[in-house]
Structures are given as structure tokens and as C-alpha cells.
Design goal:
Elements (H helix, E strand, L loop, with lengths): L2 H47 L6 H36 L1 H23 L4 H27 L3 H26 L1 H8 L3 H41 L5 H11 L8 H13 L3 H25 L8 H15 L3 H22 L1
């Protein structure tokens, strides 16, 4: 295959994968999730069938009800706690704005006194940017957080419809899963798709599983650490910082280090050292867990991963943090399957 033909092939596959994930995935995601659940629950149902003379669809229905009930309880508890802290932040926003302005004035005054630097323009720029940001928060974010609206009800109905579709799809698919797999094995296109998805599951699935475990541990550490340090918003900040740690170009230090510096300027030395210690703890834990949970990497350089995540955010929105790497992995595995088939 010539160099030009290779470039056209890679470009065509990349565009096809992008359009599939961008425009087709939202319509098939309930059934895709149902297939993944059936694939994971099938061994469990087979093990239960050996002890109980129940049909597979009955067993999976009971398992789904138990799983859904547990997740609903945890989500409700988590939602109430999280929304309470977010509303508290919204109600005390003016106080935090005043504190931040005082900190900016203190920094500017110290710079002028220590180094003789005139920072009036910088101060004006910071204040103008801050005014714009706070106006956006007051107009768009605070009303939506403090007051419930029809949008929340619509989202709840959409989530209920999604769960209903998922529940029905899992039961129907589980009923004929083994027969469907046997029939599809006869088709060559299915074997190619199976090879691609199987390798993606083994490589990308294990990688994502390890990353999810690491992120979960970091969130627990941040939440527990912030609670121990007396932060009234330990849950909100812990989740935000933990999720930011998943981004290869950000990390927990993006939030914890500025907070430590801010507290240091306020002469709260113990709290500043506490935030700095929390940053060091999360950094050490990630460095310890990553090589043990993630054996062989995806074969992608860290710089390329940063580019892929950034491109994913630009192309897919917030979901691009996940869909960006998945798109790259899909293209790589399709090209690999084409080379194997040749």
C-alpha cells in the first residue's frame, strides 16, 4: 500500500469513527450499555442457574433490581449532600468574592512594597475579569442551583426513560444472548468486530478500569483530607479535585497548591501545610498505584494522550475526556485488524 493510500485510509477511518461516536452513539448507547451489562452478568447468571432452577431473564431481573435499588439509594444520599454544599457556596458567594478581592489587594500591595512594581493595570485586569465571571455565575449558575426548575424534572424523566429502556433491553438480550452469539459467529464481519472490541476491552478496558480505581482513591483522599482540614465543602471540592487529577495536563496541584498559597498569605500556616500535605499525598498515591494497576500502557505517548484529550474536549465536549482516547484506540485497532486480515 502506497504512502498516499495509507494516509487516505487512516483519514477515512478516523472520520468514520468520529461521526459514529459523535452522531450515532447517543442513539444506541442504551443498547450498547445493555450489551456490556449482559456480557458482564452472563457468567454470574450461569453460576446462579446451577444452584437455582430459574430462567436467565428472571435471574438478571433480580440482579438489576438489587443493583438499581442500591445505586438509587447511594445517588440520592450523594445528591442531597452535594447539592447542599453547592447551595451553601452559592449563598455565600459574595463573602468569598470579598475575601478573594482582599487577597488580590494584599498580593499587589506586597509586590509594590517589596519590589517597587506598579501593578495597577494588572489589578484592574484581574478585577474586570473577576467581575465578568461573577456576573455570569450570578445570572446563569446561582439561580439554577438555588431554585429547582422544570429542566431538572425533564432530566429526571429522561434518566427514568433511559433506565427503563436499559432494563428491558438487558432482559431481552439475556434471554437469547447465547443463541445470538452462536449465529453471529458465522459472519466474517462479526468476527472482525469481535476481534477489535475484544482487544479494545482488554487494553482500553483494563486501562480505564485502573484509571477509575485511581480516580476513586484520589477522590476519597481529597474528600477525607478536606473534611479533616475543616472545609465545609469537602465533598464538592474533593470530587472536583479528584476529577481534575484524571486530566493529564492538570492534576490535584492545580487546586491544592493555590489554596495552600492563599492560606499562607492569610497566615494560616497549619492549614496551608495541610493542603500542601494533601497534594503530596495524592501525588505519591497516584505514582504508587499507576505502575501497579496499569501494567502495559496503551502504547500511546503521554504527549499524544494530552493532544487526544484536548481534541476530544473540543470535538465531543466534556465527554471527550473519555471519547477522545476511545476514538484513537478504535482507529488503531481497526488498522491493526486490517493489517492482520491482509
Amino acid at each position: 500500500m502506497g504512502e498516499g493510500k495509507k494516509i487516505l485510509t487512516v483519514t477515512g477511518i478516523t472520520l468514520a469513527v468520529y461521526f459514529a461516536y459523535r452522531y450515532l452513539l447517543p442513539y444506541v448507547i442504551p443498547f450498547l450499555v445493555a450489551y456490556i451489562l449482559v456480557h458482564l452478568l452472563n457468567p454470574v447468571t450461569e453460576a446462579i442457574r446451577k444452584k437455582l432452577p430459574w430462567k436467565k431473564e428472571v435471574i438478571v431481573s433480580v440482579l438489576l433490581v438489587i443493583l438499581l435499588a442500591g445505586m438509587t439509594f447511594l445517588f440520592y444520599w450523594f445528591y442531597c449532600l452535594l447539592m447542599g454544599q453547592i447551595r451553601r457556596i452559592a449563598m455565600n458567594f459574595d463573602y468569598y468574592y470579598t475575601c478573594f478581592c482582599g487577597w488580590v489587594d494584599g498580593c499587589c500591595h506586597m509586590a509594590e512594597k517589596s519590589f517597587g512594581i506598579q501593578v495597577d493595570e494588572l489589578r484592574d485586569f484581574v478585577y474586570s475579569s473577576l467581575e465578568h465571571a461573577t456576573e455570569q455565575i450570578r445570572v446563569y449558575i446561582v439561580p439554577g442551583v438555588v431554585n429547582y426548575s422544570v429542566r431538572y424534572l425533564k432530566k429526571a424523566l429522561d434518566a427514568g426513560l433511559f433506565l427503563l429502556m436499559l432494563f428491558v433491553a438487558v432482559i431481552l438480550l439475556m434471554k437469547d444472548y447465547d443463541e445470538m452469539i452462536d449465529r453471529m459467529q458465522k459472519y466474517r464481519i462479526y468476527r472482525h468486530i469481535h476481534n477489535i472490541t475484544d482487544r479494545m476491552w482488554k487494553q482500553g478496558g483494563m486501562y480505564m478500569k485502573a484509571q477509575c480505581i485511581i480516580i476513586f482513591v484520589i477522590i476519597l483522599l481529597c474528600t477525607g483530607g478536606l473534611w479533616a482540614l475543616g472545609s465545609p465543602y469537602f465533598l464538592v471540592l474533593g470530587i472536583v479535585i479528584g476529577l481534575m487529577d484524571a486530566l493529564p495536563f492538570i492534576g490535584t496541584g492545580t487546586v491544592l497548591i493555590p489554596m495552600a498559597v492563599f492560606l499562607l498569605f492569610q497566615k494560616k500556616i497549619r492549614l496551608a501545610l495541610g493542603y500542601l500535605g494533601l497534594f503530596l499525598l495524592t501525588y505519591i498515591v497516584r505514582e504508587f498505584l499507576e505502575p501497579r494497576l496499569i501494567g502495559a500502557k496503551l502504547g500511546i505517548y503521554p504527549f499524544v494522550m494530552v493532544v487526544v484529550v484536548y481534541a476530544g474536549l473540543y470535538l465531543y465536549g466534556p465527554a471527550g475526556v473519555l471519547l477522545g482516547p476511545v476514538t484513537l484506540l478504535t482507529v488503531m485497532e481497526i488498522l491493526r485488524e486490517m493489517q492482520t486480515d491482509c
